[in-house]
Specification:
2 domains; 3-stranded antiparallel sheet; Arc Repressor Mutant, subunit A; mainly alpha; 7 helices; 7% strand
Length: 177
């Protein structure tokens, strides 16, 4: 969290007002909503990163460890990890490199596909992700700053947006391994 004093005026509301004054009233609410979502993401990510820092993790590395911890064998092909996390393969490679240096994951040969490499969580990785998850649950996920009703509404609204944007297809086959 920032140590700066809060602003006296909401800069997004002020930008919305300027949008309207400049004749862009039909876009003002959309601009304000998108900008507010982006600022909210920055605030939440800052809180998450502060909790993860003592664990030596970034949110990207935490997400990869959490994903691996949820799989049946604690491993996934790197390409599938990239798809599940919805990030570019080079981002997964970078995260794996850092986690591997920390002893939290290892690369292993795929047992049936000689072209693929699996990323596998180590016992130290399982301990790290569990400890980080406990802290995130206590300090962020149960204290989001939203009421329970608001959280439910956000899950529904943002889920619907993501579905309509093609982020996921509930009718597609679920294949985490």
């Amino acid at each position: 969290m920032s140590d700066a004093l809060p602003l006296v005026k909401d800069p997004i509301a002020e930008a919305r007002r300027h949008w309207q004054e400049h004749g862009w009233g039909d876009a003002a609410d959309g601009m304000a909503a998108v900008t507010a979502l982006m600022r909210t993401q920055q605030i939440l990510l800052g809180r998450i990163e502060a909790v993860l820092k003592p664990h030596g993790l970034s949110f990207a590395r935490y997400e990869l460890l959490a994903l691996l911890s949820f799989t049946r064998n604690g491993s996934l092909p790197m390409a599938k990890a990239s798809a599940r996390l919805q990030v570019h393969p080079t981002s997964v490679t970078s995260a794996v490199n850092r986690l591997e240096r920390a002893g939290l994951v290892r690369r292993v040969a795929h047992p049936t596909d000689g072209r693929a490499t699996l990323v596998q969580i180590s016992s130290e990785g399982r301990e790290a992700v569990l400890a980080a998850t406990m802290d995130l649950n206590a300090e962020v996920f149960t204290q989001t700053g939203f009421t329970g009703e608001e959280v439910g509404g956000l899950i529904e609204t943002l889920g619907q947006f993501r579905r309509q944007a093609g982020d996921f297809d509930e009718n597609a086959r679920l294949d985490y391994e």
